[in-house]
What does this fold into?
Amino acid sequence: MASNSPANLEDVPSVDIMTELLRRMKCSTKPDKRLILIGPPGSGKGTQSPIIKDEYCLCHLATGDMLRAAVAAKTPLGIKAKEAMEQGQLVSDDLVVGIIDEAVKKPSCQKGFILDGFPRTVAQAQKLDEMLEKQGVKIDKVLNFAIDDAILEERITGRWIHPSSGRSYHSKFAPPKVPGVDDVTGEPLIQRKDDTAAVLMSRLEAFHKQTEPVIDYYSKKGNVANLHAEKPPKDVTAEVQKVLS
It folds into this structure.
């Protein structure tokens, strides 16, 4: 929908325009929400994010995708980001915050946003807060998908894939009829390299080291909600709705 520039709105089918108008009318009654999602790989952040986005009419801001889009669109900030990347440097916090600043002014972000994968450091959190303050808004909630590393290890290291069909199994939660073998073809299952305990442990270690100070920073402001991310998705959704109501 959003890709239609106003110039060719007359080419958009009436039913699509009506649907979008109804969506916007329904959205206009919702309270604004500006959220940050923090959680390790496998914590269910990716499952909850689209549900929250639709429920509260928010836009989903994944900083990696936004940077790539800005570079592709050759925006002034995108050009700067491209120069940094080409020189093998990290894109500066000011640049990333600038790109977020641009993004949140779009109509799709009118009711607020979900920030995913940012801020990763306290310095980034401070810059983000300063930028939002200039707009007269602030972060409403930080949803911390808290989950025990051991549970994550079980969730992730139990994953088995049938390469040619993409069918996935889990040795505990959704096992194949015969261990290590695809139900349909009888072909062997594999584990992704990233799904091994060693890789996961190093990712989790980096994650905790990086994000704990950020969670502390927002805890002091009193807007962190610690979710029980080990529960089934439906329960986590209910918990999120309670926290955001």
About this structure: DSSP finds nine helices and seven strands in the chain. The CA atoms of residues 14 and 112 lie 27 Å apart. The radius of gyration is 21 Å.
